[in-house]
Amino acid sequence: MKELKKLNSAQVRRMYLKFFEEHGHQVMPSASLVPVNDPTLLWINSGVATMKKYFDGKVVPDNPRMTSSQKSIRTNDIENVGKTARHHTMFEMLGNFSVGDYFKNEVIPWAWELLTSDEWFGFDPERLYITYYPKDHDAYNRWREVGVAEDHLIADEDNFWDIGQGPSGPDTEIFYDRGQEFNNLADDDPENYPGGENERYLEIWNIVFSQFNHTPEDTYEPLPHKNIDTGMGLERVVSIFENAPTNFETDLFMPLIKQAEEFSGTKKYGQNKEDDIQFKIIADHIRTITFAIGDGALPSNVGRGYVIRRLLRRAVVAGKKLGIDEPFLAKMVPTVGKIMEDYYPDVLKNADYIASVIESEEDRFSATLNGGLNLLNNVIAEAKESKTNEIDGRTAFKLYDTYGFPIELTKEYAEDEGLTVDEKGFQAAMTEQQNRARNARDMDNGMGVQTDLWTSFKEDSKYVGYTDLTVDNAKVIGLAHDGQQADEAQPGDKNIELIFDVTPFYAEMGGQVADTGDIIDNYGKKVGRVVDVQHAPNQQNLHRVELTAPIKKGARYKLVVDRIRHLKIEKNHTATHLLDQALRNVLGGHTQQAGSLVEEHYLRFDFNHFGQVTAEDLKKVENMVNEQIWKEIPVKTVETDIDSAKEMGAIALFSDKYGDKVRVVKIGDFNTEFCGGDHVKNTNELGLFKIVSEGGVGAGVRRIEAVTSSDAFKFLQDRDDLLTKSAASLKVAQIKEVPHQVETLQNELKEAQKQNESLQAKIAAQQANNVFENVQATKNGSLIAAEVQVAGMGQLRQLADAWRSKALSDVLVLATASDGKANLLVAVSDDKTKEGLKAGDLIKAIAPAINGGGGGRPNLAQAGGKNPAGIKEALSQAKGYLDK
């Protein structure tokens, strides 16, 4: 047998990317786990998820050959993490992709070369087995041609990649034989083969031959461009090179497991199967949590935030099972950073921020965990009292889903009290939740059907709007309407799209909206209006127009951008750069842009931030932006290569894609950013910057809306008008007196409210003297029942306190009506409560008379209803209830 190389995870990742780079592929950076402009995905869940725009033809890549190591998250089967050898919530997918370039004849020899060549992975060919789609004779023949033995090729009907409507095709999977010592099945087991459910044959690579469109009519039509999509799990391949029994005994996880051992003190990995599961859960989950927070997601009760919160709570509970009672996850962030530093250096750079988020969430969960224990103790007490001796399944699931209690933990507590748990009911509730999650994920991998309308259109189109807002002689080089290429278009045609050889119209990008304006013929006649501009697949500016006269391909026209609108948009775009930097300066370097919108009359800026933004910090940000405006700083733009731009300190905004040449916008020494948008020449053109609103819009995402220039002046003028009106209403001579006058009126109002409350209390006391005199005898004790005229439930409780202090009867029932609503209160003496008479039972019996409901403690209960006319009936029913 050929000796296996010894490579660590960083070496495997680098070798894979280097191999495909040497074969003409562009190395794509690992995209953020938080998808950008893709609402179908909760997380980036595969390498191909970042390539969808290329495969469906919306964008033509700079290079049709691409390769990546993409961090990914999948959470559809969290419960299995730690129990299996290779199940993870976050993993890295190595992949190589071809968009209409190479196909089976190229990718199969490359795969064999990477896997078996001594220069690369150097695997023993005898260890490799290949499965293929039975009807895919091309793939079979190509594998045979590169040297794969016939008995190492296995036909499998499952080798067809199809997720419904969109691209599909056969695939081929590559398995590594780890040897008989890894075999967990009998020799005659039907799953004991490459491709079966076993531990011996490890799937390491899947190559998809995307060659068909699965149509809405459920047919398979050839794609305009055949594509290659592959995926190799880094963790799996590393386990082979490091001869690890599972993925967890590799350099990607063992430092985390060793650190968890130190926190535990008494538990060691490899000594107990149940303990090992907890170690694996911790190691897996802290990686996912760290990377997710580093990419801008934050714990919450919905969406991505809920996933982070759930993983963190599972990890904390796993720690408790190992005897770790102190917060520990935040301390593991630097370890994650060091493991992944070779390819993900930003994790270590942001470690303090990530750890602070995790630490806060750990502290919060401690309180939640205690709340779960309180609920569990109450459930156990109720089960004993009712003598059911079983905790129902839905309660067990609530403990799991809401408080993070695994069913095993609930069973342990229950067994200590001599109880059992309805595990079937728990599993039923779990299945319901998984079905809901599965239905919500149906579109996760959705990929649009390829369109070829503009994909093959590669003529150059130049954007000159940075300097010119009018072009006199622009030629129509591309024209389409109603989804078809055409030579001319008429008014009334639908979906008219034009590409000019030169254009002053900005195409929407980077949050900046598109320009609008007019198309004018050689006679000065307006023939149409540009209403939107987007990028064609090959990045030409694609104009969407409404025509008032015919327009022809090849003809020349004057293009005129709406100048005033464009200049306003420029001001707001420069303001977003100033705002972005000011937020970083005031709130901290962890603040990242999470989205922006640059419109004509306002700007909107979303950013990641953990916690509230105080009014003081917001004022600092606003002042800092205005200071840069009033300093009259020149705004300069340069075009350079990406490395030079980074040396200049340019900030790259979240997941924007940058080409070989990049445009850098520099605002003095204050801010330098990558940006392809339009900007002012000097900050003084903004005139004034004013924040209009700030608030949260999602888990850990804040939003600022602001205005500049004339819109800022109008905003302040409107506020001045409101102050002037307020001054007139308050009858003060000057606006500066308004705050003092408001404070005076507030104090007077508070004093009046105190006097009112005092008078109401006196009235209530007078009524109490009359009410408390009317004591009725019932079979279950003495009763005082009456309707009183008081302000509401608060004063009813005051009367009840007075009644209880004087021990005037065994039961008190009071009612009051106001504003079409009724309130009821029932109080029971302590002696009667001990005898089993409960205020809650009585209130439930009489509340229907007022069309209401309520409850409370055994000695005090209350109810509200919408039928004051039923009060007398309720009081009568109270006596009847006690006479039973």
TrEMBL record:
Gene Ontology biological process: alanyl-tRNA aminoacylation
Chief place of localization: cytoplasm
Catalytic activity annotation: tRNA(Ala) + L-alanine + ATP = L-alanyl-tRNA(Ala) + AMP + diphosphate
Location within or outside the cell: Cytoplasm
Coiled coil ranges: 735-769
SUPFAM superfamilies named in the record: Class II aaRS and biotin synthetases, Putative anticodon-binding domain of alanyl-tRNA synthetase (AlaRS), ThrRS/AlaRS common domain, Translation proteins
Pfam families documented for this protein: DHHA1 (PF02272), tRNA-synt_2c (PF01411), tRNA_SAD (PF07973)
Domain Alanyl-transfer RNA synthetases family profile: 7-718
Gene Ontology CC annotation, any one: cytosol
InterPro entries per UniProt: aa-tRNA-synth_II/BPL/LPL, Ala-tRNA-lgiase_IIc, Ala-tRNA-ligase_IIc_anticod-bd, Ala-tRNA-synth_IIc_core, Ala-tRNA-synth_IIc_N, Ala-tRNA_ligase, Ala_tRNA_ligase_euk/bac, DHHA1_dom
Domain of life: Bacteria
The UniProt record lists the keyword Membrane: no
GO molecular function, one term: aminoacyl-tRNA deacylase activity
Gene3D superfamilies: 2.40.30.130, 3.10.310.40, 3.30.54.20, 6.10.250.550, Bira Bifunctional Protein, Domain 2, Threonyl-trna Synthetase, Chain A, domain 2
Record EC number: 6.1.1.7
Entry similarity comment: Belongs to the class-II aminoacyl-tRNA synthetase family.
Name this polypeptide is given: Alanine--tRNA ligase
Originating organism: Limosilactobacillus reuteri
Gene that specifies this protein: alaS
